[in-house]
Amino acid sequence: MINKIIKPDFKSTLKEDRVFHPSKKFSANAHIKNMAEYTKLYNESIKKPEVFWAREAENLEWFKKWDNVLEWKQPFAKWFSGGKINCSYNCLDRHLSDKGTQSAIIWDGENGDKRNITYNELHEEVCKLANVLKGFKVKKGDRVVIYLPMIPEVAIAMLACTRIGAIHSVVFGGYSSEALKVRINDARAKVVITVDGGYRKGNKTRMKDAVDEALSGVKFVKNVIVVKRNGIKVQMKKDRDFLYGDLMKKASSVCQPAKMNAEDPLFVLYTSGTTGIPKGVVHTHGGYLTQVAMSAKYIFDLHPNDKFWCTADVGWITGHSYVVYGPLLNGVTTIVTEGLPTHPTPERPWKLIDKHKITQFYTAPTAIRMFMKIGRAWPARHKLKSLKVIGTVGEPINPEAWTWYYNNIGKRRCPVVDTWWQTETGSILVTSLPGATPTKPGSATLPFFGVDVAVVDMKGKKTKVNEGGYLVINKPWPSMLRTVYKNDERYKKTYWNEIKGVYFSGDGARRDKDGYIWIMGRTDDIIKVAGHRLGTMEIESALVSHKAVAEAAVVGKQDEIKGEAIVAFVSLNLKFTESEKLINELGAHVVKCIGPIARPSQIIVVDDLPKTRSGKIIRRILKSIAEGNEIKGDTSTIANADILEKLKKL
Ligand code: WT7
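^ thats the input. predicted complex w/ WT7 below
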């Protein structure tokens, strides 16, 4: 829901008028070579979407062709219905005749372990694990939760599910057992695939323990498959838990791919919304695969033998679409890395790029700002000559970071693609095309093929040039979410009811005189911390579940590296008084409920929170206080005005 009270300040202060053009050399070899080509295809994709998307879908292999490209009964879309397809077949089998011995995955573990997995080998592993799942009676439509660090098994597990038509739900390895439990319960998973533990900054983490905790009292999870990664000792529950290695040794490597309906669910991925409960975003086979494959090809200008490195964790949508499915659907090599890019030294990414001759590098503004802070001496020691395209995603990128990235990583040679999209959109919707689009630092530029976007006011009326508004999408697209898992109502309400007749993204944006889109950030109660999406409500619910907290309000505060940092305002129950110990305890409590990514960087104890007469907390005021700004705008709606003076003193 749009929080009309914290309606953002839509005045954009960003002034940036530099324009960067792709080099002639790059454009000459690119799939889309100039703006005329972009415009021609874009116009076709909007005017004749069925012709355009049918042609793109034909690049995949279908067991049976679709009857209709699109059936649209707002807000429910069906793409390629009647078609039969399999995801793992398209990612693997169809490449085997000419690319069987090429690397599918190059993996770089954080402790120095390395693996190179060819398409033949990946195919074999996936078939074996698919048979293991079958052995556990996993059938079409059953849910499998995957809770793994960034090791090759995470991709194997996802692909194995798709091979037999099971619906995977990957849960980010950094989530706590409680957050994991919520997701396992909502999905009613039959099997969980996990690991003993992983590595973080050289330390061993414990993940199987978290699964055991999450499963206490849970009856519907029949089996747990445990990959051995860091060798720590873990509990294995008899008849429920089995070691991945043992199971794989005995499994057959022959497994026919299930013929899935185009509209069968492919996966559910939980993401934060504006309530305390995460949403299970549902993506389907035909549409998702078609659009992910084609977006990866054009936006990163993929060519045979490319080596694509997306640094995102597979626990997020970026990892689904551009670590696993996008690169594999296109038959290139995907680089999978475990642990922080700066560990063991800040040189790791640049060394890796030179060593493997990586061609595309796709990361988040928060990482770029961190590299920037560490200093350009690190990338300067490396030629990075193999790089062709560099990309950014997850939050608005400030022009300064954009330029640093362009100069120091792209070495003024590689086009930067600033890609806007969401868990819900499945694939990139607003972006430049590296061989065609003149880029402006800080702008995600123009809509991608098939994407009919607009910036509008609350009534759905287009805003004027450079005037802020809400970013909406007018027409369905193949990789859009189909619903919220088991909750059509929430799907309708969140995405199709805020502004009549269009998909509501929740982002504020403006378009400049050239039609370029400048994303201005979320307009609802969602914050982006180091690119991770968190609902303020989720963190607030975590805080108030602690016995000391009476009320809590969470806001995002601008942060140089993380984009936004979490600031929590809490009022305490009568028996409790403020102390450093209590503040630390509250931080730890949030970590326990959600995970380390949600730990507030500041917890401020207050007597009371500013509220409207109807009792709604006025976060806009708290945000100004957190950021040390003057409180602007209307304060006449505050019911408890005396609190304002106290807050100002903070
Ligand atoms: C939100 C979606 C899908 C990518 C990973 C994040 C913000 C994403 C950009 C960009 C400005 C961006 C938006 C969006 N966002 N990309 N290039 N420029 N903002 O997926 O966790 O679902 O978050 O991330 O606010 O709504 P997500």
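Confidence is low (pLDDT under 50) at residues 1-9.
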